[in-house]
């Protein structure tokens, strides 16, 4: 049975597609393709149907990540098919938990940086949209740092299911 992870930010054109791309690469490197799927969405539908922000695409490409993406809005119906919903900041965490149809669904929502031991007291990946390219680079660094711990946690879940 496939373990499904969905990354969620505001408009699904910057942070969550970056997290999805990085995590897909980590899954492939770990040989977990077919066992783990990554997806992404936004809490709002402003950019639905749009590609990822060109700055996000550029930063991802420079680090060797694939970035084919079309923005979508996260809806409550998605919870039923997901094992883990990864929020990129505290606002998304709250919004997603409010959207959750059940307490069990709300428990699926976690902050990305909760898997980064160096995140300290700042659990949020800041929105780079209104800034320059350096914000996208910082975002990618935070996503990469958290993805290692996230992959380890997901691998444990996959191993429990297949044991």
From TrEMBL:
User: What positions does the domain Phosphotyrosine protein phosphatase I occupy?
Assistant: 3-153
Q: Record's Pfam families?
A: LMWPc
- What GO molecular function annotation could you give as one example from this UniProt entry? protein tyrosine phosphatase activity
**Do you know which InterPro entries this protein is assigned to?**
LMW_PTPase, Ptyr_pPase, Ptyr_pPase_sf, Tyr_phospatase_low_mol_wt
Active-site residue list: 9 (nucleophile), 15, 127 (proton donor)
UniProt similarity note = Belongs to the low molecular weight phosphotyrosine protein phosphatase family.
The name of this protein is: protein-tyrosine-phosphatase
Provenance organism: Streptomyces zinciresistens K42
């Amino acid at each position: 049975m496939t373990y499904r992870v969905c990354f969620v930010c505001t408009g699904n054109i910057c942070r969550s597609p970056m997290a999805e791309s990085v995590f897909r690469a980590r899954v492939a490197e770990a040989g977990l393709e077919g066992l783990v799927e990554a997806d992404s969405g936004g809490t709002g539908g402003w950019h639905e149907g749009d590609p990822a922000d060109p700055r996000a695409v550029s930063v991802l490409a420079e680090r060797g990540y694939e970035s084919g993406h079309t923005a979508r809005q996260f809806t409550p119906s998605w919870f039923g098919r997901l094992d883990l919903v990864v929020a990129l900041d505290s606002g998304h965490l709250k919004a997603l938990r409010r959207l959750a149809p059940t307490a069990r669904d709300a428990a699926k929502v976690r902050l990305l940086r909760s898997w980064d031991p160096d995140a300290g007291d700042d659990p949020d990946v800041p929105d780079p949209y209104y800034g320059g390219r350096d914000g996208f680079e910082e975002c990618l660094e935070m996503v990469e740092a958290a993805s290692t711990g996230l992959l380890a946690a997901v691998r444990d879940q996959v191993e429990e299911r297949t044991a």
